[in-house]
Amino acid sequence: SPSRHVTARVAPLGARLVLALVEDRTRERRVEAVRRDFVANVSHELKTPVGAIRLLADAVHDAAGDPDAVKRFSARMLTESDRLTRLVQQVIELSRLQGDDPLETPVPVSIAEVIRIAVDTSAIDAASKQISVVTSGTHDLDVLGNEEQVTAAVANLVANAVSYSEPGSTVLVSTKVDDQHVSISVVDQGIGIPADEIDRIFERFYRVDPARHRSTGGTGLGLSIVKHVAATHGGDVHVWSVEGQGSTFTLSLPRYLSVRESQEASR
Ligand code: ADP
């Protein structure tokens, strides 16, 4: 009968609608949980340097008659406030990145320019450790996405390579290209990452046992920014590392093809 026909057609549609709504709600709740976690983590991470600065200020105050102690405590205050500054910067960066979708209005982003800015950004830290940062490969390429985000990702990889390397070593930034992707590899001869921790380093605030190596004042947010940028650009990021020998991080992003190139490619 006609009415049965209608029911049969409506029911699966209704069921699908309900299912879609449930999925939507589940997703919403998951997003909300992640956000709550993030806020809790940020508050926790902020309390550590703020608490330390407070204690050190007290110590400086009490040590007024002892110039050596004042010097020592104030040096540590500087370190802690630098850490706090970096943390605040990276939290702002991360939340800004999460606000916009780079593929909504993608533009060609010059890899040469991105690498130049990334290398420049680490130049002072590299020079102070006599680390040479060298580049190789074809840089005259564009990826498709958001320039600020791609630059932030590559700059984080170069900054890490410099901070987890021994003085006098070399950091190499190289690019490779195929039809669809541009891969940017950052290779260091640094401390490497223990095999049992490598899966976790892209998590927010995760740092390889900070006691094991010299404190570098990192925040644990850099690689989560890289991972986020890779994901939102439809690319990915891989790490290969041997403890005590070095690490290679490879960020792969979709290539921008000019109209002419894509016409040639489809021929
Ligand atoms: P951080 O601010 O601590 O550098 P990241 O999220 O950038 O935070 O990195 C997370 C952790 O991964 C670092 O604390 C460090 O232990 C490890 N790591 C990242 N890059 C490297 C590298 N190039 N060599 C060795 N370890 C690294």
Helix fraction, binned, reads 55-70%
In DSSP terms (H or I, runs of 4 or more residues), the helix count works out at 7
Helix and strand content put the structural class at: alpha+beta
Shape: globular
Order of helices and strands: HHEHHEEHEEHEEH
Question: What small ligands are held by the chains?
Answer: adenosine-5'-diphosphate
For the largest beta-sheet, the strand count, sense and barrel status come to: 5 strands, mixed
Provide the low-confidence segments as ranges.
none
Rg over CA atoms, rounded to whole Å, is 24 Å
* Quaternary structure classification: single chain
Beta fraction: 15-25%
Roughly what is the average pLDDT, rounded to an integer? 87
Number of distinct beta strands: 7
Biggest sheet strand line-up: 2-4-5-7-6
Cα-to-Cα separation, first versus last residue: 55 Å
